Amino acid sequence: MECSLTSLIEINELCRAFGSLEVLKRLSFTMGKGDFVSIMGASGSGKSTLINIIGLLDNTFDGEYRFMGIDVKRLKENDIVRLRAKDIGYIFQAYHLIAGCSVRDNILMQTHYAHKKVSEKEYRELADKLGIVDILDKKAGVLSGGEKQRVSIARALINDPTLVIADEPTGNLDEENTKYVSDIFESMHKNGTSILIVTHDHNLAAKAEKRYLLSEGRLTEVSDE
Ligand SMILES: Nc1ncnc2c1ncn2[C@@H]1O[C@H](COP(=O)(O)OP(=O)(O)OP(=O)(O)O)[C@@H](O)[C@H]1O
Ligand SMILES: [Mg+2]
User: Fold this and answer.
1) Could you tell me the pTM of the whole model?
2) pLDDT in tens, 176-207
3) Is the distance from the beta carbon of residue 46 to the nearest atom of ligand 1 less than 6 Å?
4) Domains of the chain
5) Which among 15, 48, 52 is the best mutation to test ligand 1's pocket, defined by most ligand atoms within 8 Å of the CB?
6) Which of 17, 51, 57, 174 is 20 to 30 A (C-alpha) from 67?
7) Within 13 Å of residue 157, how many CA atoms lie on the same side as its CB?
């Protein structure tokens, strides 16, 4: 059995079905701390289904999943919520910002869930890095797609998570914002953050050290050229 102290994610024989539709079929996957991994695959192949499980948003699966060495099946709901808030930054494809709340509140809300204190300086630095300083008082609902994307990245990073999971993080962005977001992932990776990206963008996928294709319910590693 694979078991390594450096493994962040260890998945063995994972199965996930919706009724009679078998989406993930005895899928196995390992990811180490500090790795930068991308997953591509046709629409409907199960990418979001897989990262919802990895991101501790869905616990309805068969097989084994260890996150940071912890068997997530054994965790109580409260422990899952705390682990997710503290160690996982999730960038949703559809942003999932609270439209009626300010950008500031959308971001800082995360620190409350994780029971974490973030200094004004750290928060300002992050906002500055993401180019959102001027929109902190705006309501999230009125932002452009690119702004929402950057705010959702700030929200995912505010607790300095062990793992950042991003579902189509550049799906709705123009070229300039795509480059911006892609540079941010590279710099986070250099700082030691583990990154797992699902994308249809070949250029973004190619930035990762390890690239996988999800097809017929399983992951296959894609080699160079
Ligand atoms: N909650 C659900 N109930 C029923 N079927 C579901 C559910 N979630 C996903 N599915 C189905 O599972 C399959 C995989 O969906 P999933 O969202 O994981 O695909 P995807 O690879 O992320 O696609 P895309 O690239 O379009 O985002 C699809 O056929 C989808 O209809
Ligand atoms: Mg999806």
Assistant:
1) 0.93
2) 888 888 998 998 999 999 999 999 999 999 99
3) yes
4) 33-59+82-222 (3.40.50.300)
5) 48
6) 17
7) 27
